[in-house]
Known about the structure:
Elements: H1 3-17, E1 56-61, E2 71-73, E3 76-84, E4 108-116, E5 122-131, E6 149-150, E7 155-158, E8 164-167, E9 173-177, E10 201-203, E11 206-211, E12 217-223, E13 229-235, E14 245-247, E15 254-257, E16 263-267, E17 273-277, E18 289-291, E19 294-298, E20 307-310, E21 316-317, E22 332-334, E23 345-347, E24 350-354, E25 359-364, E26 370-375, E27 386-388, E28 391-395, E29 400-405, E30 412-417, E31 427-428, E32 433-436, E33 440-444
Parallel strand pairs: 17-21
Antiparallel strand pairs: 1-33, 2-3, 3-4, 4-5, 6-7, 7-8, 8-9, 10-11, 11-12, 12-13, 14-15, 15-16, 16-17, 18-19, 19-20, 20-22, 23-24, 24-25, 25-26, 27-28, 28-29, 29-30, 31-32, 32-33
Amino acid sequence: MNHTPRxxxxxLILALCLLPSACSQNWSQFRGERGIGFVDxxxxxxxxxxxxxxxxxxxxxxxxxxxxxPVIWQDKIFVTTAISASGNDGLKIxxxxxxxxxxxxxxxxxxxxxxxxxxxxxxxNYLAHEGVPITKRHTKSSHANPTPATDGKHLLVFFGSEGxxxxxxxxxxxxxxxLGRLNAGPYNMPExxxxxxxxxVIYKDKVVIQADVVEQSFLACFDIHSGDELWRSNRDExxxxxxxxxxxxxxxxxxxxxxxxxxxxxxxxxGEEIWKMSGxxxxxxxxxxxxxxxxxxxNAHGRYSPIYVVKPTAKGDITLGAExxxxxxxxxxxxxxxxxxxxxxxxxxxxxxxxxxxxxxVFHALTGExxxxxxxxxxxxxxxxxxxxxxxxxxxxxxxxxxxxxxxxYELLSTNPMGDICMATPAMDRDAIYFRTQHFxxxxxx
Length: 446
């Protein structure tokens, strides 16, 4: 692999990101560009007080219920929601293992909201679909889980069984696709419905959707301009809730996906499988992360909760043996200890692995050496961590944001109550951090 062009590109991107009109203003998908989850050279507060309105730039009520994360393009911020005619926006949060579905079968409006990033004023909202949800949701879920994605011209919004929509940034519909009934629930109880969560990913002129469901899982790629399906790869996989990611520092460009039977990489041009592996938790819910020229994949549930680190040169079936923790393409892994719901954060040299009960383990990303283990608070966590300028931000379901110092030693810098339930991962730019709570979108900044 030729590293010289890659080094030049990375330097160029870094230089562009120093311009106020470039990367600093955009958080284009789940966890930002390529899912990295951090913005440096920013002005994000360590301490704030929502109740006293200290360092709260604005707070805007968003009707309905949604766990999708906000995304940012220049001066606009986008979020989705599902509004129930019954007014039932209830959530059952906390640490529990019930498989319960929410009983609300009323008509819902599936909407997209666009807000002014500076003021929080709603610029427009678009009704994508109205009707009784085709599938039910888990009591901790919503009917608007997938995070939008944008390239500055197109806004891709996925509502699962209610369809895939492409809008322009002024709220005009460009095209839509009906992908059929997509039931994502436990593999051993096909009658149970929990709701979709995989977010769309944009790469150049392509849109990738991962639809791991009960009946027929698939990975599909669409033309961003026309909505035409370019390819579809069927997957022998149970339901999963993580989003795909893209690795473009090699040939071919790979779509990286999580799974239980089938983690792996696919050629983005034709959907052909490049590598695969099995083993792990039986309810994969996290997004693969690309960092340090490796893929980091974790999942949990059932017997195992692994973390896998995979080289981008992987080919064929690289599944580890029962007693193995490494092989030619997997430099290190652990069998148990990976997070169930939270996508890992790779920031600097370290991997921050936060589990749902607040147990945080920090690894050296390239060696697997444990730096420390610590428990953050006594609350439940679903949202994934983000970082800025040496600070890590973790949001609990109960609405407390814990800010810790990045590095190989634990230091809690602050705790910040948001006054509302927090299920969604925040977005960031150089001006503020944006929290989507159960009822509001809140901008925190100096």
